[in-house]
Every structure is written in structure tokens, then in C-alpha cells.
Specification:
Blueprint (H helix, E strand, L loop, with lengths): L3 E4 H15 L5 E5 L6 E4 L1 H18 L5 E8 L3 E8 L6 H6 L19 H11 L3 E7 L3 E9 L1
Parallel strand pairs: 2-4
Antiparallel strand pairs: 1-3, 4-5, 5-7, 6-7
């Protein structure tokens, strides 16, 4: 890890721009975060790996015309970065297994991957002394939330 100060809003916007350039379907990606700058002491490359991976996963499971939202909020002791989609809902069993190595919930043939992306994200987050969680509800898609200490 190579830590440095990173302005979070610009960093997130750059990742959304990159993802928009490479996406292959019509899914709206937006950023919801306070307008004031927020400096985070982190490894920008690792933060990029986390967010790009979550964005790519959200795109995989969100149908045409859906939305993906990157959000950020600061609490008293942590920074929460979320990626929410309007895609396929995960059942509770899948939510419990989703961060395991090589786990895939490919019940449809619409998605491809090797099942290591979320386990890599979880490991990077843990090495930053943070945590990651998923919430999924019928009709609302899924939200992945990364919590990093400030």
C-alpha cells in the first residue's frame, strides 16, 4: 500500500467516467455525495480497485435502463462508500457466501466472471482496517457498503 491524500469526490467521479466509457449496456451511473471536498488518507489505487470492482459487479447484474449509484457519507469515526444498483436481488444464502473466493451466483447465463472480485475487495478493505457488507431487498436491487476508519 502506498498511502497519500486523495480527494474523494474527484476520485469517485473519475471512476464513474471510466466505467461509463467501458460499459456495454444502457445503465445510468450517478454519484451522490456532499459537494464539499473530502480528503482521505488512503492508497488511491486500492480505493480504485474497490470501487471499480463494485461498479462492474453492479453493472453485470443491472438490466438495461437500470441505475447504479455511488454514494459516500462521513460518520463520526468512519467513511462509508456505497454502490447501489437496481439489479437482481440476492437471497440471504447468497449474501452470506458472496465474499468467498470463487463463489458465483450465476443462476442465469447473463453474467461471466471467475468469482474472485468480491473476495479481493473484501481483503483490500480488511487490510485498510475496514469492513464490507451487502444488503439486498426484493424490488430494490443490492447495496454494497464499504466502511473505512477515518
Amino acid at each position: 500500500f502506498k498511502y497519500e491524500w486523495c480527494e474523494l469526490m474527484n476520485h469517485c467521479q473519475n471512476m464513474i467516467t471510466l466505467t461509463n466509457q467501458n460499459k456495454t449496456k444502457d445503465v445510468n451511473i450517478s454519484l451522490q455525495m456532499p459537494k464539499e471536498p473530502y480528503l482521505l488518507y488512503t492508497d488511491p489505487l486500492r480505493l480504485q480497485q474497490i470501487i471499480i470492482n463494485l461498479l462492474n459487479n453492479a453493472l453485470k447484474f443491472t438490466p438495461e435502463g437500470g441505475t447504479v449509484t455511488v454514494g459516500c457519507k462521513k460518520t463520526a469515526s468512519a467513511l462509508e462508500i456505497s454502490v447501489a444498483d437496481t439489479g437482481v436481488r440476492m437471497d440471504e444464502e447468497t449474501q452470506e457466501k458472496i465474499f468467498g473466493k470463487y463463489y458465483q451466483n450465476d443462476t442465469t447465463s447473463l453474467t461471466k466472471g471467475n468469482g474472485i472480485g468480491l473476495s479481493i475487495v473484501r481483503r483490500i478493505v480488511e487490510l485498510c482496517c475496514g469492513s464490507i457488507a451487502v444488503e439486498s431487498q426484493p424490488g430494490y436491487g443490492s447495496t454494497f457498503t464499504v466502511t473505512l476508519p477515518c
